[in-house]
Amino acid sequence: MAAHLNLLATILFVLILISTGPRPSRSARIFTIINNCKETVWPGIFPGENFNGGGFALRPGQSIVFSAPVGWSGRIWGRSGCIFDRNGNGTCQTGACGNTLKCSASGKTPATLAEFTLASLDFYDVSLVDGFNLPMAVTPINGKGNCSIAGCDADLRTSCPSELALKANGKVVGCRSACDVFDTDEYCCRGVYGNSVICQPTYYSKKFKEACPGAYSYAYDDPTSIFTCSGTDYVITFCSSRYRPVCTYHDNKLVCGGSNGLRSSAGRWGMAVLIALPMIITL
């Protein structure tokens, strides 16, 4: 029941956004970001002009909705273990974009990274090339084409090789990439290894790929890791299965996607949506 309430809270927020605010253009993409972790996550977005300046806090169970225009190209990641003062200055254990809440640059490695290029045909992926800090899934809804779910829903912090582990207060908070740790051409796919023929999966990238087949494990992992979709909305979820159903509001209908594909979800959720309203973040 709690899972349904989280889901419906997100849906209602989209409904309110569309019915009371400026209507997004037909070509805009709706991004719904959900925190299903047991801890607060501070999403970072770069460039962040369309995303509340590129940084904010999401407590467990909270969600937020944005609209981005076609032509936007950027990245979304989660920051963990952050402490910010009332002026938005502070630090994070992982994913920090300097010492500010609002990100004007990419996050510090290691960080699980969702990448998007919005065009007539969108390109998107979830990358572990710069390491891992939080499970993340990207689910496209309402689109046409391949539109596969991207992401890494395994928690690599629990299985990270000791030589790659990033620790804070004795706890593993991230799993670094082999390139970041060893800084060699082979692991970083540079120099003579700077092409897809020579740069092949390594022991470490194979471990990442086994745990997260729907994410980039190294620089030339394109065939199984980059996805395309047209005219889609996106749901970005932290700490949730890639196959857990998610919903958005599209063409005056509530539409859900996930392990069972797309389906309409009309009126029967009404009362539960009203109950779930307090769980939505307000900025």
From TrEMBL:
<dbReference type="InterPro" id="IPR037176">
    <property type="entry name" value="Osmotin/thaumatin-like_sf"/>
</dbReference>
<dbReference type="Pfam" id="PF00314">
    <property type="entry name" value="Thaumatin"/>
</dbReference>
<feature type="disulfide bond">
    <location>
        <begin position="37"/>
        <end position="239"/>
    </location>
</feature>
<feature type="signal peptide">
    <location>
        <begin position="1"/>
        <end position="27"/>
    </location>
</feature>
<feature type="disulfide bond">
    <location>
        <begin position="152"/>
        <end position="212"/>
    </location>
</feature>
<feature type="disulfide bond">
    <location>
        <begin position="160"/>
        <end position="175"/>
    </location>
</feature>
<dbReference type="InterPro" id="IPR001938">
    <property type="entry name" value="Thaumatin"/>
</dbReference>
<feature type="disulfide bond">
    <location>
        <begin position="97"/>
        <end position="103"/>
    </location>
</feature>
<keyword id="KW-1015">Disulfide bond</keyword>
<protein>
    <recommendedName>
        <fullName>Thaumatin-like protein</fullName>
    </recommendedName>
</protein>
<keyword id="KW-0732">Signal</keyword>
<comment type="similarity">
    <text>Belongs to the thaumatin family.</text>
</comment>
<feature type="disulfide bond">
    <location>
        <begin position="82"/>
        <end position="92"/>
    </location>
</feature>
<feature type="disulfide bond">
    <location>
        <begin position="147"/>
        <end position="229"/>
    </location>
</feature>
<feature type="disulfide bond">
    <location>
        <begin position="189"/>
        <end position="199"/>
    </location>
</feature>
<feature type="disulfide bond">
    <location>
        <begin position="179"/>
        <end position="188"/>
    </location>
</feature>
